[in-house]
Structures are given as structure tokens and as C-alpha cells.
TrEMBL record:
Residues 19-180 form the DNA primase/polymerase bifunctional N-terminal domain. Pfam families: Prim-Pol (PF09250). InterPro entries: DNA_primase/pol_bifunc_N (IPR015330). This is Bifunctional DNA primase/polymerase.
Length: 206
């Protein structure tokens, strides 16, 4: 993709608006590094003092101390650059990340019981189910290499963050569930069901 300044600039206003909106709802928003071209086929990430080989990561090295920053301050972070939109997990929101196949089947299971859950997806094919903070994975999911729980001390990218090969996007927007995050066990139950569901269920997913 073309990571020119003009291309990134097209996202700056949207990124800032999304960041401020989440901050007003109490979500711990953080600015993250953003793609700055490739070298030898490797994407470089800008936003810190120098270019990074991996991203997006928080711009501020003391990002843990900045959790809970006011919306007004959040707005100033995106005033000049198209930083990635990160949210620190373990405070208000956690995320259960799975691969596309498992994610689709879990979405079917949740839809069948009428429980909408915010779901963000990365260009690399990872789905993140957003849940209330404070839970741990049950034994079956904890032993599944396709499942990761983002909790305290971690962070996730949210739309419209740009990645190496595309943009993070919503599969199910938080507005659909009235910004009410589900308890983690609801999503975990759906994931366990999805683990044992036939692959054809993917065809019915969102």
C-alpha cells in the first residue's frame, strides 16, 4: 500500500474523532506508531524518536502511566500526526483474539442467541471480540494456540488503524450493542461452541 503523507493524512481527522469518542466513553486510548514505508520488504513504523521494525506500538514509552488520559488531552495527541488508534486492555475493555475461521463460527453462535458483541478484525485475519475486563480464559481456550486474551499490560489496535497490508475494521461496531461490553464468559462459551462446530457454520457468519 502507499504510505505517503497525503494518504495517511486522509485518515487523521477520522482517527482523531474516533480516539476522542472512545476516550469520552472511558476507553483508555493511546496513540500508536504508524506505517512509514517499506525497506527490503519490511514495513517501518514511525511515531517514536526513530523508525521501529514492528508495530503498531504505543508512541509513549510510559504509556502505562497515561492510561485514563482525559479526552481533551487525547485530542491533542492526534493534532499533527496520523497515529494508530490503540486501546489499553485490562482496565475497561479486554479482547479475545482468534483466527478468522473460529471468529466466524463464534459470531454465528452469538448471533443465534441474540447477543451482539463488538468485533474488530485485522488485515492479517485476526478477529478481536471486545469484552469487559477482569476475566481469564477457561482451560479449553487457554490451551488453544488460536486464542489469545489481551488483558492488563497489553493493548490492541482499533479501527481505522492502518497496518502493513490494510486497515483494521469493524465486523460488528460497538454501536450495535449500545456500547455495552459483554461479560467475557458469554464470548468464551460461544468460542467453545465454535471450536466444536462444523466448518460449514462459517458460511452463516457476519
Amino acid at each position: 500500500m502507499d504510505w505517503s503523507d497525503s494518504w495517511r493524512g486522509a485518515f487523521r481527522i477520522e482517527l482523531r474523532a474516533e480516539a476522542v469518542s472512545l476516550a469520552y466513553r472511558g476507553w483508555p486510548v493511546l496513540p500508536g506508531t504508524y506505517p512509514a514505508g517499506t525497506e527490503d520488504g519490511v514495513t517501518k513504523w514511525a511515531g517514536r524518536s526513530g523508525l521501529e521494525l514492528h508495530g503498531p506500538i504505543p508512541v509513549h514509552r510510559d504509556w502505562v502511566d497515561r492510561v485514563g488520559t482525559s479526552p481533551d488531552q487525547v485530542a491533542t495527541w492526534w493534532a499533527g500526526r496520523s497515529y494508530s488508534l490503540l486501546v489499553a486492555t485490562g482496565h475497561v475493555v479486554d479482547a479475545i483474539e482468534v483466527g478468522t475461521g473460529l471468529g466466524r463460527r463464534a459470531a454465528v453462535a452469538l448471533r443465534s442467541i441474540g447477543v451482539p458483541v463488538p468485533i474488530a478484525a485485522t488485515p492479517s485475519g485476526r478477529w478481536m471480540f471486545l469484552v469487559k475486563s477482569g476475566s481469564t480464559l477457561n482451560a479449553e481456550l487457554a490451551n488453544n494456540p488460536d486464542v489469545h486474551l489481551y488483558g492488563k499490560g497489553e493493548y490492541i489496535p482499533l479501527p481505522p488503524t492502518t497496518m502493513a497490508h490494510g486497515v483494521v475494521h469493524w465486523r460488528v461496531k460497538p454501536q450495535v450493542c449500545g456500547w455495552n461490553l459483554p461479560d467475557a464468559h458469554v464470548v468464551q462459551d460461544a468460542l467453545v461452541e465454535a471450536v466444536h462446530a462444523p466448518a460449514r457454520y462459517e458460511l452463516e457468519a457476519v
